[in-house]
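Re: the 412-residue chain
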Amino acid sequence: MNSPHSGAHLALPRLSRRAESLGTENAFVVLAEVNALVREGRDIVSFCIGQPDFPTPEHVQDAAVAAIRSGRHGYTPSAGIDELRAAAAADLGARRGLDIGADDVVVAAGAKPFIAYTIASVTDHGVGDEVIYPVPGFPIYESQIAANGAVPVPIFLRESRNFAFDPAELEAKITARTRLLILNTPQNPTGGILAREDLDAIAEILHRHPQVWVFADEIYSRLVYDGRFDTLATRPDMLERTIISDGASKTWAMTGWRIGYAANRVLAPVFTRWITNTESCASQISQWAAVAAITGPQDAAEHMRARFRERRNLIVALLNDIPGIRCTVPGGAFYAWPNVTEACKLTGCADSEVLRKRLLHEAGIAVLADIHFGRRVPGDGQHIRFSYATSNEAIERGVGRLADFVRKAAQA
């Protein structure tokens, strides 16, 4: 009798080019490597995952328990429950000074799906439609552009501009085939913020190119440390063509609850159909928790923001004390993006990825390298990313290990 696996030596049907080319998020790849080392008994200080290290606020947890106890276990409308759409619309609008209606907002299982839904909604597969996206940037941008059969067009965030891009470079990259511009502010991985002048210049350019949509990834909008959050959507005629993407993950320490939302009047019905075709709806329990997060007390969110600001100041000061390392003060999010070009030379590392691996295996520090966020920016040297969503003690211990590694390697 043949076993069920007797034909295992035969070639399996091939995968699609889309599946074979699909990228990943290297923070999770490195985390798996870190966890393997920890299981072996290694002491690793990890800075690789970008999620708050605080618990979800207690009143939000209570709202989820109440939803479970009251029988809110079933499907919801694909666009989300009315209460959350209304709460998100009011919050998005109030913090941006915009008029956003509940019908403009769609809820998904996290903000990340809206990257794919947007690209799939405004580009056609395989016809040369172009999407301009920031580099360094969240790796899922490029991955989803390619998976959806569009053409990725990188625009470089430069250290000399506090990790903004040159508006003249944007103008040069827009063609008749450009369908979408992705903006992220505050940014992952640099922590940079697009200043008012940058947003004004971008809006002026886009007025000359009415065929271009804008995906505004604003998931870190509540984590701005100096001044107020600003968005392209407030510029004249920009709200209608901007998809504002935000969510609960970073603001209220709800990464695992998987609740995000996007606002755009024209695309809301399209996003709703995508959700019907994919996830059906976000978890009803998580949606009720998000209502409580948005409409309830904000003390915990403000406490987290204050602590992140303290940690930012600590890690930047410590990094800038290390020979060969230069770190710009990030304006938002919870990432530091130090320039390690000279540190690579001092330690005999060919580049930031070699440095990252040596830091992990020789010094017990887990960081990400710039190549995990796209191609290196020409002329900007080498960088690594720290997520400072961890304790002051971990920051001091981890950066101390980095300092010891650089100094010892430089003397060898």
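The chain has 14 helices and twelve strands.
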